[in-house]
Design a protein that fits this description.
Blueprint (H helix, E strand, L loop, with lengths): L1 E5 L2 H10 L1 E8 L2 E8 L2 E7 L4 H15 L4 E9 L9 E9 L22 E2 L2 H12 L6 E8 L7 H11 L1 E5 L2 H11 L3 E9 L5 H27 L1
Parallel strand pairs: 1-4, 1-5, 5-10, 6-8, 8-9
Antiparallel strand pairs: 2-3, 3-4, 5-9, 6-7, 6-10
This protein binds adenine.
Length: about 230
């Protein structure tokens, strides 16, 4: 059983449509859809935006389904100039850019309890995702840090500040929380993002215009990934 988590319907609806032998179970406010997806036994959930929604859903998925690994997929803002709308980013690790206990001597971004700034993603899953991205024609793929926080980033200045601290290639709102919950449970994790906006002053226009296209790119990568595993 593998686990897939998107924040919004638009990020996973094509995958849900392809799932056969579907079963649904609701735990709290999370609905888990399980079944067969491109030859793999899978469970899929829409966690809702933000770190707490993502962490709760991940924990619940782990406790209820015991997935061998979990992939968080969906859209993101670009983390730097060289990353453009339509590009893919595969995380080597995730950071939580809004964690800051630096006034009491910690590095900015330190996630307390697990005591990490960079939360690792599974190397094997990362490499398989890179290969699955390469099979999507005309799409440029980046590998690196994905920065997560409970904020929609829509200023070039804020994006630059996050990039200077963490070297991030994408900014979004769930990956670091899914990786955090997976790390605490010893579950291998991947984070895959397709860029919907530049995380700058134009993001309020670009995001609604490109979210559907970007979401379908990351779903296409998941299809390639699962078919390659079959
Ligand atoms: N998801 C998509 N675009 C985003 C942005 N600019 N900031 C945070 N999350 C996002």
């Amino acid at each position: 059983m593998i686990g897939l988590i998107g924040a919004m319907n638009v990020e996973v609806e094509n995958l849900i449509a392809h799932m056969t032998d579907r079963q649904e179970k609701t735990v709290g406010m999370d609905t888990f859809v399980s079944g067969c997806l491109f030859g793999q036994e899978a469970v899929l959930a829409v966690c809702g935006p933000g770190k707490i929604n993502a962490a709760l859903c991940t924990q619940s998925m782990i406790v209820n389904y015991h997935p061998q690994w979990i992939l968080n997929l969906g859209v993101a803002g670009a983390g730097e100039e060289g990353v453009s709308i339509g590009d893919m980013v595969v995380a080597e690790c995730a950071v939580q850019h809004d964690c800051d206990t630096s006034p009491i001597g910690d590095p900015v971004g330190l996630v307390s309890k697990i005591n990490l700034v960079q939360i690792p993603c599974d190397k094997q899953l990362h490499d398989a995702l890179m290969a699955a991205c390469a099979a999507v024609e005309g799409v440029k793929t980046h590998s690196g840090v994905i920065a997560t926080g409970d904020q929609f980033i829509h200023s070039g200045e804020k994006r630059r500040a996050i990039h200077e601290l963490f070297g991030s290639k994408a900014v979004e709102m769930e990956g670091g929380a899914v990786a955090h919950a997976c790390y605490m449970n010893g579950v291998p994790c991947g984070v895959l993002r397709s860029i919907s906006d530049q995380a700058d002053g134009r993001s309020d226009m670009d995001y609604p215009a490109f979210v559907k296209l970007a979401a379908s790119h990351s779903e296409q990568v998941v299809e390639n990934l699962l078919r390659a595993m079959a």
